[in-house]
Design a protein that fits this description.
heterodimer, A: 300 residues, alpha/beta, Rossmann fold, Alpha-Beta Plaits, 2 domains, six-stranded mixed beta sheet, five-stranded antiparallel beta sheet, B: mainly alpha, 55% helix, 6% strand, elongated, AAA+_ATPase (chain A), ATP-binding (chain A), nucleotide-binding (chain A), ABC transporter ATP-binding protein (chain A), ATP binding (chain A)
Chain lengths: 300, 137
C-alpha cells in the first residue's frame, strides 16, 4: 500500500438520492502529474474532499500517504498540499502576514521556492489579499502550496478563470517546481490543451466511477474512429463492444469505438463484412470528449 | 563545454499525435534534414520542456526513444548528442516517400497529354544527368 500515494477501496458517496461516487477503486502511484478528468458533476471535487478528510464517504475507505483520510493527524496534513478553485485566502490579511502564518505551520517551508514562484506574479508583500486579482491570488496560493514542499499536492481546477499570461506562469511554476521537490501532483481541469501539456497520467471518472487510468498515448490508442459505407444494425453494433458513437453523415457511417486497438477493431469490422473502413486519427481532446459524451447522447 | 544547438521544433495540442511523438518526429526531421548535424548537442530535458511549456517527463520519454533509435547518445555529465547517421529513414518510410512523390508527379503531368513512353524516357534522361553530375564530382 505504501507504493500508492492515494488509494480508494469501494468508495461510495451519496448526497440524498444523488450518487456522487460509486465503487471507486483508485490507485495513484507516487511521482508525476496525474490529471483527473470528468464532466461537471462527475464527482471530482467530492473525491478530493473525501481524500483530504473534509467530507466522509457513505461507505468504503480512502487513503492518502498510506493513512486513512478520515483519521489524518496534523503531522500528515503537513505533508499534503491543497489548492481549491476559488483560491480562498483570508481577505483581511496582508500578503506577508498570510505567508508568515503558513511559514510557521510548515516545518519544511522552502522560502526559495516561494520566492521563485511568486516572482512570476505581480504580488506586493504589503498588499491586502482582498486587493489581489484572481490570477494573483492563484499565484500566491500556488507559491505557498509549493513552498510547503508537500509529498502530495491536490489542485482542484486551479487555472479556472485565469488569463493566458497568468495561466502560463501558473503551469510553468507548477511543472518545474514539481520536478525540483519530487512531489506527486493530482489535479483536475476541464482544459484539454493544458492537460495535454501537463499530465503524465489520465484518470477519467464518469458518473462517480473510474473508467481509465492510463498515460495519454495508451489512452489515445484505445479510442478509434472509423468511416465506411455500410449501415450497421443495433445487433451488429453490439458485437463491437464499447461503441461511443455511431452517426450517419452523408450516407456513411461514422463510428467511434473504445477499448479496442486499431487492429482488433478492424478485425471486428471485417467480421461484419466491412472491408473498406477508413481510420481517422483521434486527438486526445477528441478521445476524451467522445468518452465523456457517451452518456450525454441525444435520444435517436 | 559544447554549446547547445537551438531546436526549432513546434508542438501543437489537439493533434492526433501525442506530444511525446511530436517531439520524436520533430527531432528526427531536424536530423534527417541536416539542421542538426552529427555532434550537435540537444537542449537539456528541462530546457526543452521550458521552451515548449510541457512536462519535463514527456521530453525525457522522447529523448529515451531517440536514444533507443540510435539517433542520439548521452555522454555522461555532458548531455545528449546527435550520433553519426546511417540512413535515418526506415525502409518503410523510404518507400512511403517515394510513393508520395510519384503520386504528386503523376497528378501534375497526367493531363498534359504525353504518352507513357515519352514520360518514362524524360524521367530516365533526368536520372542519367544526375548520375553524370555525381560522377564528375
Amino acid at each position: 500500500m505504501a507504493n500508492y500515494i492515494i488509494e480508494t477501496r469501494a468508495l461510495h458517496k451519496r448526497f440524498g438520492k444523488k450518487v456522487a461516487i460509486q465503487s471507486l477503486n483508485l490507485k495513484i502511484a507516487q511521482g508525476g502529474i496525474h490529471a483527473v478528468i470528468g464532466a461537471n458533476g462527475a464527482g471530482k471535487s467530492t473525491l478530493f474532499r473525501i481524500l483530504l478528510g473534509l467530507d466522509a464517504p457513505t461507505s468504503g475507505e480512502s487513503f492518502i500517504l498510506g493513512h486513512n483520510s478520515q483519521s489524518l493527524e496534523p503531522e500528515h496534513r503537513g505533508r499534503i498540499g491543497y489548492v481549491n478553485e476559488e483560491h480562498t485566502l483570508p481577505t483581511w490579511m496582508k500578503v506577508h502576514e498570510v505567508t508568515a502564518m503558513q511559514k510557521n505551520l510548515y516545518k519544511n517551508w522552502r522560502q526559495d521556492l516561494y520566492d521563485s514562484v511568486i516572482g512570476n506574479f505581480n504580488v506586493e508583500q504589503s498588499q491586502k489579499v482582498s486587493a489581489l486579482s484572481r490570477g494573483e491570488r492563484a499565484g500566491l496560493n500556488l507559491a505557498m502550496a509549493l513552498a510547503q514542499a508537500p509529498e502530495v499536492l491536490i489542485l482542484d481546477e486551479p487555472t479556472l478563470g485565469l488569463d493566458v499570461v497568468a495561466k502560463q506562469a501558473f503551469l510553468e511554476a507548477l511543472m518545474f517546481t514539481q520536478a525540483d521537490i519530487d512531489t506527486t501532483i493530482v489535479y483536475c481541469s476541464h482544459q484539454m490543451e493544458e492537460i495535454e501539456r501537463v499530465a503524465e497520467q489520465l484518470i477519467v471518472i464518469e458518473n462517480g466511477e473510474m473508467k481509465y487510468n492510463e498515460c495519454p498515448e495508451k489512452f489515445c490508442d484505445m479510442v478509434t474512429y472509423w468511416i465506411f459505407d455500410e449501415a450497421l444494425s443495433e445487433s451488429q453494433l453490439s458485437t463491437l463492444g464499447n461503441v461511443l458513437s455511431a452517426r450517419i453523415i452523408d450516407e456513411q457511417t461514422h463510428l467511434v469505438l473504445a477499448d479496442l486497438e486499431a487492429a482488433e477493431a478492424l478485425e471486428k469490422l471485417n467480421a461484419l463484412g466491412i472491408e473498406a473502413a477508413t481510420q481517422v486519427p483521434v486527438s486526445l481532446d477528441k478521445a476524451i470528449a467522445s468518452i465523456l459524451a457517451k452518456n450525454h447522447r441525444v435520444p435517436q | 563545454m559544447t554549446k547547445t544547438t537551438a531546436l526549432a521544433i513546434q508542438i501543437v495540442t489537439g493533434d492526433a499525435r501525442p506530444i511525446f511523438r511530436q517531439i520524436v518526429d520533430g527531432i528526427r526531421k531536424e536530423i534527417a534534414s541536416g539542421t542538426l548535424p552529427t555532434g550537435s548537442k540537444l537542449p537539456s530535458v528541462r530546457g526543452l520542456a521550458m521552451q515548449l511549456t510541457i512536462n519535463a517527463n514527456t521530453v525525457a520519454k522522447a529523448y529515451n526513444e531517440l536514444t533507443d533509435l540510435g539517433l542520439v547518445e548521452s555522454k555522461k555529465g555532458l548531455g545528449l548528442f546527435v550520433t553519426q547517421q546511417q540512413c535515418t529513414l526506415s525502409e518503410e518510410e523510404r518507400t512511403q516517400k517515394l510513393e508520395q512523390a510519384t503520386d504528386d508527379f503523376i497528378n501534375e503531368i497526367i493531363s498534359l497529354g504525353f504518352s507513357h513512353r515519352e514520360i518514362i524516357e524524360h524521367v530516365q534522361g533526368q536520372l542519367q544527368t544526375i548520375n553524370k553530375q555525381d560522377k564528375e564530382r
